[in-house]
Amino acid sequence: MIERVLVVDDDLIALSLCEFAIKNNGFAKKVVTAKNGKEALDFFENVGKATGEDATVPSLIFLDLNMPIMDGWAFLKAYLEKFTLKYPETKICILSSTIDPEDFVRAGRYKIVLEFISKPLTMEILNELKKNGELKKYFL
Fold first, then answer.
1. Residue range(s) defining the domain that contains residue 115
2. Over 80: is that where the pLDDT of 122 sits?
3. Inter-axis angle of helices 37-47 and 72-82, to 10 degrees?
4. Strand partners for 107
5. Number of domains in the chain
6. Would the CA dihedral through 21, 26, 30, 36 be positive or negative?
7. 80-88 long-range contacts, Cβ below 8 Å, gap at least 24?
8. pLDDT 10s digits, 39-62
9. What is the CATH number of the domain that holds 78?
10. What pLDDT is recorded for position 76?
11. What average pLDDT does the chain have?
12. Kind plus residue range of the DSSP H or E element containing 8
């Protein structure tokens, strides 16, 4: 089981559904949420200063693309610049309702992006993610 995941989405219903699926699937012990890329970056700024359970860095980020304030692409760019060397184990799954083929191509250019998942996040998708080469170590 993954210790901690971060879900970044501006839709509060989507956040609740993701948290419910992740917890009920036994995918992660703790789910942290952010409503946009800026909140997610702030989270990573603070996790490095935290202690105890709050200092646990998420192993996986479920990232929406279309959000106000800072969208998923801007978050991804900033995260790569600021945090990939500091948190090399953290990976990203794009979780979006986009149907733009360019988004799929663009996501494939990032080694940190493991999967491009179409919303909603389901138990079946989580079970498939458990088999991903980068994640299966958490589910042995």
1. 2-139
2. yes
3. 20
4. none
5. 1
6. negative
7. 80/110, 80/112, 82/41, 82/44, 83/44, 84/112, 86/48, 87/44, 87/57
8. 999 999 999 787 777 788 999 999
9. 3.40.50.2300
10. 97
11. 94
12. strand 2-8
